[in-house]
Write a structure and sequence with these properties.
Layout: H1 3-38, H2 46-78, H3 93-98, H4 106-110
Helix pairs in contact: 1-2
Length: 114
């Protein structure tokens, strides 16, 4: 995959993930505010905490994804983008199109990689 296409894919993926993170963070804040307001009225506040925990888990996954994108951008600058970080084998373009931050070949990922 050429660098121009890789940069475009990574830029689009970063924007998508940042938007989702913003939405999730906003939802978590709303859940917390709602839980605080309803604390006196709710017989079982666990449902509000469950929503908060779900939002926090999603936010953590999105932050991890941003980390993977940053690592892919560094590999692009280093000239190693498109190669497995484990074996150095080429990652096919179709895999990079589907996941521009892919760090492993599909086979390596199935074997239990990152």
């Amino acid at each position: 995959m050429d660098d121009v296409r890789a940069r475009a894919l990574l830029r689009a993926e970063r924007a998508r993930v940042q938007e989702l993170l913003g939405e999730t963070t906003g939802a978590a804040q709303e859940d917390r505010s709602s839980a605080d307001e309803q604390a006196v009225d709710i017989a079982d506040p666990a449902s509000a905490f469950t929503d908060e925990e779900r939002d926090d888990a999603i936010a953590a996954q999105l932050k991890d994804r941003l980390g993977a994108i940053a690592r892919a951008e560094r590999r692009l600058e280093d000239g190693t983008y498109g190669r497995s970080v484990r074996s150095g084998l080429p990652i096919p373009d179709d895999r990079l199109e589907a996941d521009p931050a892919a760090e492993l070949t599909a086979e390596e990922a199935r074997e239990g990689g990152a």
